[in-house]
Write a structure and sequence with these properties.
Number of strands: 5
Strand order of the largest sheet: 1-5-4-3-2
CATH topology: Nuclear Transport Factor 2, Chain: A
Oligomer: single chain
Radius of gyration: 24 Å
Mean pLDDT: 84
CATH architecture: Roll
Helix content: 25-40%
Number of helices: 6
Number of domains: 1
Distance between the termini: 80 Å
């Protein structure tokens, strides 16, 4: 009788695929690839990565201190300022969030926005770094305005404790050497109005 019970249990285990391997689950979407910003270089890397990955939370974290507080000072490029002066008044992090939401929502789900920084120059002391870099942005959206933007940014990246850096000031400049006339400020205006 005991033998029959054991055989019966074994047959049931084999029949229900208890010991077979299962298909792996898909990885979670929206995983964070935000690195602890313990240097100005990592802040730039996080900004670029969050833009490319359409991760608004991580994009905004580049402008927040370790307590998730922000005082962002933004100066638009001259061409954007001349044409849209009032749009950039009283700029704050909420404006960035609205723009990134509008931008990412205008993209095809499979489209990957592109942001690159080149010619990076940096002046650093223990608690502040001034980073200047040329940038190129490509966003394949379905709107009736430009898809390419280029210019130069100057970021003041600061740290109150020397182990958590964030952007406190952002100055945008038009490119003087590109045939692309629209700057990051123009992108902000296009997706923020």
């Amino acid at each position: 009788m005991k033998r029959l019970l054991i055989i019966s249990i074994l047959i049931n285990l084999v029949a229900c695929d208890f010991f077979s391997t299962r298909s792996p689950e898909d990885p979670e979407t929206g995983r964070s690839n935000f690195s602890t910003p313990d240097s100005p270089d990592i802040v730039l890397s996080n900004l670029q990565s969050s833009f490319t990955n359409k991760n608004i939370v991580n994009f905004l974290r580049c402008f927040q201190d370790a307590n998730f507080e922000s005082v962002l000072e933004f100066t638009p490029s001259q061409s954007a300022l001349v044409n849209n002066a009032f749009f950039f008044d009283n700029w704050e992090l909420k404006n960035e969030e609205i723009i990134m939401n509008n931008l990412f929502n205008s993209l095809d789900p499979n489209a990957i926005p592109f942001l690159s920084f080149i010619n990076i120059e940096q002046q650093q002391n223990p608690l502040k770094s001034i980073v200047q870099a040329d940038y190129y942005i490509l966003v394949n959206h379905g709107k009736d305005f430009e898809k390419e933007y280029t210019g130069t940014v100057q970021f003041n990246i600061i740290s109150e404790t020397n182990d958590y850096w964030y952007i406190s000031k952002w100055i945008d400049f038009n490119s003087s050497s590109s045939t692309i006339t629209e700057s990051w400020s123009n992108l902000k205006f296009n997706f923020g109005r």
